[in-house]
Amino acid sequence: MSERRPRPGESLTFDFDARPSPVAEPPRAAPAAAPAPAAPKPEPEVLSVAALGRILGKSLERAFPSAVWVEGEVSGARPAPSGHLYFSLKDEEEEATVDVVMYRMSITPRARTLVKDGARVRLRCRPTWWSPRGRLQLVGDRVEPTGKGALLEALEKLKAKLAGEGLFAPEKKRPLPAEPRVIGVVSSASGAVIHDICKVAFRRGAARILLAPAQVQGTSAAESVRRGLRALQRIPEVDVIIIARGGGSQDDLLAFWDEELVRDVAVCRVPVVSAVGHEVDVTLVDHAADARAATPSQAAELVVPDGHARRRLLAERVARLQRAIHARVQEDRVAHARLTSAFRDPRLLIASAQQRKDDRVARLGRAMTRRLTREREHLSKASSRMAASHPRQGIARDRARVAPLRARLVELARARLASDDAVARELSRRLVRETKAVLRDDRTGLAQLAARLDAMSPLKVLGRGYAIATRAADGRAVRDAAEVARGDRVRVRVAEGAFDAEVVDVEGGGSGEG
């Protein structure tokens, strides 16, 4: 391969067919009558793809020993997660494009601001051959602005013109329908966009989707999208239209900067949702549409109502309605009791007393809820004291006291039986009375202790209709409404069993004892 440095203004060419001339072997001696044999044809040299890439890379390094400045219009700028910046430079006068990469160590904040689609820049770079992709690319280390590109300047003028006509005014934006009958979609029939929209729409609820296939990239894409938009508007059942396309470079999204398409979107019969490109891609269709979605999937979420959320809202409102009805019934009962008390009916007096009792019991229950922790300590102490004075111990002591009396009775009876049966019977009766009195006193004390124990039992309170609520997370008793929040799960202990409940509303809380 012939290699030389190019002169200024001269392009570099590569002669891949040039090969070193083979060395001719000296002819062997042959008989004079026989002609000399022809020299064998040399076999061509075969290079591997990697070897060819290394040759091209070295040739570029020798051809461009120092950095060069290249001027052009930025296209397809995309930052990578690694921090590198990839884009293309294209010639505005001729059809020529070259790929560019700027590594993270060479990128400044100003460079990130300058490199955007449609901007004209001057780049200091080195041409290199990137073998993994088999293409020529420029590795840039410095970028300077040289003005706006022709495309960017034209798009900004068009945007200012349409904004001046009021096509992007916020007051012209229409709300999306809450229950759309049919959702029209203008997108490619073979891409993944329509599948994403259908998947999200069917997951959220029942949805009818009508697709108007359109070309979303290329010179005829704008007219194709306009035809799909007009076709969907002629269907009366269509309530909202989604214009969707996947991400791409500025050149790929030029169809959605078309003036006629933007005007058609602005005067569309039904609301329009624009889901063109990614979140960072903003086109004139996004400004003219009634709503903009970052992705086609988000557009489906905006248009299709969530059936699960609506069912939850319906259940919550039914519960609130039931509570309101219950509260109204309670108020009507109280009003009825007040009106009936004016007639002096004894039954009403009893009902009023029961109401006062219920009110006091409710107040007592609230007080016990707040003081549950302290009462548990008191109960523990009382249990210790009761264990010391258990009825079994009292009975044992009483039996010990009765046993000597019984022995004395037997002895006296035997001693006096022979001499005075009457006196013996009288003494026996007195001893029996004393024994009964002692046993009666012991039973009375035992009954009092049992009554005190039963009165201090929490189960006694639960038997009157109250409950003990504990938090499901840590088992701590709920003493104040401020200790729980809406959505928390609590475990409620009643007189017979327990059950789990979810907090749907919180009233009061944080007050003192009442």
Question: What features would you highlight for this structure?
Answer:
single chain; 514 residues; alpha/beta; OB fold (Dihydrolipoamide Acetyltransferase, E2P); Rossmann fold; five-stranded mixed beta barrel; five-stranded parallel sheet; 14 helices; 18% strand; elongated
Describe this structure in words.
The protein is α/β, with parallel strands linked by helices and about 525 residues long. It folds into five domains: about 50-150, OB fold (Dihydrolipoamide Acetyltransferase, E2P), CATH 2.40.50; about 170-305, Rossmann fold; about 305-345; about 390-460, no CATH class; about 465-500, no CATH class. It is about 45% helix and about 20% strand. The protein is built from 14 helices and 13 strands. The chain has helices at about 50-65, 110-115, 150-165, 195-205, 220-235, 260-265, 285-290, 295-305, 305-340, 345-370, 370-390, 390-415, 420-455, 460-465, and strands at about 70-80, 85-90, 95-100, 120-130, 135-150, 180-185, 210-215, 240-245, 270-275, 290, 470, 490-495, 500. The protein is elongated and about 170 Å long. The relative contact order is 0.05.
Beta-sheet strand percentage? 15-25%
| Largest beta-sheet characterization | 5 strands, mixed, barrel
The tally of strands reads 13
Q: CATH homologous superfamily name of the largest domain?
A: Succinyl-CoA synthetase domains
Gap between N and C termini: 101 Å
- Give the spatial strand order of the biggest sheet: 1-2-3-5-4
Query: Which structural class fits the helix and strand makeup?
Result: alpha/beta
Instruction: Indicate the mean pLDDT.
Output: 79
What is the alpha-carbon Rg in Å?
49 Å
Number of domains: 5
CATH topology heading of the largest domain: Rossmann fold
- Please name the CATH architecture of the largest domain: 3-Layer(aba) Sandwich
